[in-house]
Design brief:
The protein is mainly alpha-helical. Helices cover 70% and strands 0% of the residues. The protein has one domain. It has helices at 13-43, 61-77, 83-101, 120-148, 157-179, 181-215, 226-247, 253-275.
């Protein structure tokens, strides 16, 4: 899926590509928030959709779908610092278009213009079919490359596991889409979103461990592990807000959970861009 790791130097095109891919994801998050902010301005300061995903049913729709899809592509294209990080980025990138293409069931009631009457199942059928077909083609290319390189160095265990998990995810999604279309339309957004969140947290945790190992040396001053802080905030905010929502009537809890997680996602990429500005990949 991602290119073989190399050692970028100076202002090489490879180094610039790493920088631009990471910063592109930050910019796409900003694009989404600005679009939501413009919609909020037009609906009144006390009017919010129940979730960030529900802004799909507002004029934000094109930006919502485009931004999430583009972020997913960036995650797949960007090479992780380790094979396991690369696998998580690829899986998260695979799932993000599902979050974009399959809307939440609830349209919400806060929008600046009347919701357009569309056939959501038909939209999902078209978009997800295209996604599954292109996903299968991409996976076939990866498998083909692995088979063609069988005469050379043997594929790593992590690479084989990652490809197998990607194939299983694609097959499971296709089976659900074909056999249980109604439940897919109702629930695929949430399943994919949870999967993306898990992959992103995993990526942040791997970076926290790597940074701790790199900076742990006798006599070295104690430092704050930026990635550990981000990981704790991600999990803590999601769990904390979810628990509060169980106790009190908090209509917009999911909106704040999603907004917080996406903000921390952008903070993570900003932090990694700063850390690896002159390296591209850690330790390369």
């Amino acid at each position: 899926m991602s290119a073989t790791q190399t050692a970028p130097t100076g202002g090489s095109p490879i180094l610039k590509t790493y920088r631009y891919l990471r910063l592109a994801m930050v910019h796409l998050v900003l694009l989404l928030f600005v679009a939501v902010g413009v919609e909020w301005w037009h609906t009144g300061r006390s009017c919010f959709q129940d979730s960030l995903s529900a802004y799909y049913f507002t004029p934000v729709q094109a930006v919502f779908v485009g931004a999430l899809t583009a972020i997913g592509i960036c995650m797949v294209v960007l090479k992780g610092n380790t094979e396991w990080e690369d696998i998580l980025l690829n899986l998260g990138g695979m799932l993000l278009p599902v979050v974009a293409f399959v809307p939440v069931p609830q349209e919400g009631s806060c929008r600046s213009v009347p919701v357009l009457l569309r056939d959501t199942p038909a939209d999902v059928a078209n978009n997800v079919t295209a996604l599954l077909v292109t996903g299968a083609v991409g996976l076939a290319v990866v498998v083909g490359v692995l088979l063609r390189s069988s005469a050379g160095p043997r594929a790593s265990r992590a690479h084989v596991i990652g490809t197998s998990v990607a194939a299983a995810t694609l097959l499971a999604g296709a089976a659900w889409f074909v056999v249980g279309r109604d439940s897919f339309v109702e629930g695929a957004h949430y399943v994919a979103a949870v999967g993306v969140f898990a992959c992103i947290v995993g990526v942040v945790v791997l970076n926290a461990r790597a940074l701790r190992s790199a900076r742990a040396s006798p006599g070295r001053r104690t430092f704050v592990n930026r990635y550990a802080v981000i990981a704790v905030l991600m999990v803590g905010s999601a769990v904390g807000m979810g628990l509060v929502a169980l106790v009190v009537d908090w209509q917009h809890w999911l909106l704040w959970v999603e907004s917080t997680l996406i903000t921390l996602f952008a903070v993570f990429w900003l932090s990694q861009t700063q850390e690896l500005w002159n390296e591209g990949l850690r330790g390369r």
